Amino acid sequence: MTEEFPNELTSNILINPNNYEVGDKIKEMCHWSTYKAVERNSQTNVFFHVLHYSKDELNEKSIDLYSKKSLIRAIKLIRKYNFPGIAKTYGVYFPEADDQNRHVFTDSLYKEHVIVVSEYFEKNLEKLARDFSDGKPTPGFGPTERSKIIFGISSILENAHAYNLTHQRLNLSNIYLNDNFEPIIGEFGMAYMLPECERNDYKYLAPEVKKDSYVDYSIPVDVYAFACIVYRMFSYEMTSNNNNEKDFFFRMKIMKGWRPDKPAIIPNSYWNLIIVCWEQSSISRPQFSDITNMIIGDEFVLHENGIDADVNDLKRYQEKMLAFNHSFRRND
């Protein structure tokens, strides 16, 4: 390993990309591509995230030693505590760390790119939210599951933030669902490997995040993104009256204090939650502990399309998540 590389990076965090058979591309962001891959020995499906920036570009974009250490810290925290509701990260590959490993790559995809390998999930909240908003069939995505998902995201982030683990690029595309349609948040730590002003989709970026200026990506940034997620779970299109408005102008309006109007489909209880979570002033936004305590109330149990949420099922999930959180704090 080169001298400039983090000393604490151990062999159980570094991965060899040759151990994975990379398949279809699942999604492409402006910063990285995510593939479905298979670990050759165990035949386990994984997400194979490839950062688009090359080693030289990373240096030019100030992805420094602190960024790499922050990613490593996130991976170690997730491994140590096995947070409920956070996808496992199996390892990372840094091209500059390969002087010692001396891998011989058969695919140029691996030669100069940072790669993160994480737990795989089939169901993705982005697609379900889009289909729900468009009126398409969404089996298993009824009021019970949707109530669980919103509560679960808040509870998961409450727990993560208690350990100073922030997400920084929270959005619908990195929230997955297990077989019980319970939320699993992925891509923790990966935002550290991106320039600060490019860490999230513009629809989820808090107004205090400005190009070419330092921003403390702390709890309020995740809270703002949470508000946008809740909004888009009811009304996927998050635009002004001008549907052809360019991203830049939408972003400028957000920074000046504008927010989308309330769609009729969003219940008043959730609209009030959204309003307080996307406050213009970051210090006016609540903590996730406050949000979790708020949305456990009966007024947040969804009733949609003539169907009531299964209150008993929802309460069981809420109690399970709260018990996890209390246990973590007690045993740490």
TrEMBL record:
Transmembrane segments: none annotated. Pfam families: Pkinase. GO terms for molecular function: ATP binding; protein serine/threonine kinase activity. InterPro entries: Kinase-like_dom_sf (IPR011009), Prot_kinase_dom (IPR000719), Ser/Thr_Kinases-Pseudokinases (IPR051681). Residues 20-301 form the Protein kinase domain. It comes from the Eukaryota. This is Protein kinase domain-containing protein. It comes from Tritrichomonas foetus.
